[in-house]
Amino acid sequence: MIKFTLNGRKVETDAPATARLLDLLRDEFELIGTKEGCGEGECGACSVFVNNLLQNSCLIPIGSISGADIQTIEGIIETEQFKILDESYSIAGGVQCGYCIPGMIMASAALLSKNPHPSEAEIREGISGNLCRCTGYNMIVEAINLAAKKGDGLC
Ligand code: FES
Ligand code: FES
């Protein structure tokens, strides 16, 4: 049995240690905000925080997360940071099909937590692990820029 913390709650699973964290989140815990894109660590759609670090859950066997603190998009949805990002993505038109957006929001939150006032180059670097097939990235970059301005002192 593997025990860990998921969005602030102590949980456990009997799934095999080789199972992917992505599948566990979606199938056992029904946290379907975390998406599968490539399944190979290339697109960032499956981004989660593991011990506060942005990680691709499709590459993580659950045997490696015993005792870890995992946060998904559902776990940050009540935070002030999420509300600012949500509003900024909306204003900037950063959401089209939406498939990449949970991962983008996680990457945005990770970036702004470390660097509350990133330059455009730093924003592009911060989301470089996340692919979007719809927006051409410019509106997403603008959204993060807006969030940085609004979130002064919060991120
Ligand atoms: S599904 Fe995990 S990085 Fe693409
Ligand atoms: S909004 Fe469609 S993949 Fe990014």
Briefly characterize the structure:
This protein is of the alpha+beta class and 155 residues long.
Q: Given the C-alpha coordinates, what overall shape results?
A: globular
Biggest β-sheet strands, sense, barrel: 5 strands, mixed
Hey, roughly how much beta strand do the residues contain?
5-15%
Give the bound compounds: FE2/S2 (inorganic) cluster
Query: Residue-averaged pLDDT, rounded?
Result: 96
Structure description:
The protein has about 160 residues and is of the alpha+beta class. It has six helices and five strands, in the order ββαβββααααα. The chain has helices at about 20-30, 75, 80-90, 100-115, 120-125, 140-150; strands at about 1-5, 10-15, 45-50, 55, 70. A five-stranded mixed beta sheet has the order 2-1-5-3-4. A hairpin with a 2-residue loop joins strand 1 and strand 2. Helix 3 crosses helix 6 (about 140-150). Bound molecules: FE2/S2 (inorganic) cluster (FES) (2 copies). The site of one FE2/S2 (inorganic) cluster (FES) has 11 residues, from loops. One FE2/S2 (inorganic) cluster binds near residues 37, 39, 42 and 44.
